[in-house]
Amino acid sequence: MQPEQNAVKLGGLRLPLPPVPAPKRALWWGGLAALAAVGVLEWPVAVVVGAGSYVAERLSREDVRKDLATGD
Fold first, then answer.
1. How far apart (Å, rounded) are the C-alpha atoms in residues 7 and 67?
2. What radius of gyration, in Å, describes the C-alpha atoms of the chain?
3. Is 16 helix (H, G, I), strand (E, B) or coil?
4. DSSP class of residue 5?
5. Cα(61)–Cα(43) distance, integer angstroms
């Protein structure tokens, strides 16, 4: 990706834009936050579930990359 595409110029500064999650991932985070805001889930539980899903997804992607690199 070109540096100009993921940055915004503000005055003389170039500020990086945060990555935008995939629509399914954004829906997951939004639903989790909504459940916590309404009171269906307690905030600490929502944070732990969110952190766990983030870590599991990262580890899964890492395993797929390793499998592709080794040809398994």
1. 33
2. 17
3. strand
4. T
5. 27
Overall residue count recorded for the chain in this entry: 72
Q: How far is CA 50 from the centre of its chain?
A: 10
pTM: 0.64
43-52, long-range: CB within 8 Å, 24+ apart, which pairs? none
Q: How do the pLDDT tens digits run along the chain, 72 residues long?
A: 444 567 888 888 888 888 888 899 999 999 999 999 999 999 999 999 999 999 999 898 888 888 888 876
In this structure, are residues 31 and 41 in contact, taking their beta carbons and an 8 Å threshold? no
Tokens of 67: 């499998």
Please choose, from the candidates 25, 45, 26, the residue with its C-alpha nearest in 3D space to the C-alpha of residue 35.
45
- Residue 53 exposure: Cα atoms within 13 Å on the Cβ side: 11
Which tokens sit at 19? 């990555």
